[in-house]
Amino acid sequence: MGAPEEEAPRPPSDITVYGANCSLHGLSHIFLPGGVTIRRLLWAAAFSSSLSFFLYQVADRVIEYYQYPHVTILDEMDVPVMYFPAITICNYNSYRKSQILRNDIFWMAGLLGVEQGDFDDFMAAVGQPTDNSKFFPSKSFNMLEFVQRASHSMDEMLLDCKYRGKDCGPENFTIIHMSLVLNHILTEDF
């Protein structure tokens, strides 16, 4: 009769296409075209055991979460004199713009990224007069003096302070490296 027809290759199944294109580690080694092999069975066992262990851990943590466990440990000690802990007050706005002078801009322009031609714009941006006619820069610049003058003062930042029911104020604070830290040696009044 006629010549035997050649069978057309079967297209891969949907799961094989998914497994080959999936980024889930190991799945592409399990779902390959062809028959079952030892290698595939080992990959399937490794994948199944890993997935089972992961799901077990998830279920265990969800159950633990919904049990609302509380662990509270309380140690109580009587101390006759308790020292106030050292605290740090940081102001991210390091300098008061009202205290920045044209001389400061002249000397720190490189640090601030301000070109000499932009001084007037910068002074206007910080709310200072832009009159340049009477400006003569100083012969030197003292960064410590600038920091002390332009930094925020404790008098302005400290709104209220109480320790052991008594008022405290800026005199109880010491400036250290542009941070305001409560003085460790409190007066006898505290």
From TrEMBL:
GO terms for cellular component: plasma membrane
Keyword Transport part of the UniProt annotation: yes
Keyword Transport: yes
Pfam families according to UniProt: ASC (PF00858)
Gene3D superfamilies: acid-sensing ion channel 1 domain, YojJ-like
GO molecular function, a single term: pH-gated monoatomic ion channel activity
Mode of membrane association: Multi-pass membrane protein
Family from the record: Belongs to the amiloride-sensitive sodium channel (TC 1.A.6) family.
Name of the protein described by the UniProt record: Acid-sensing ion channel 3
Organism, as annotated: Dissostichus eleginoides
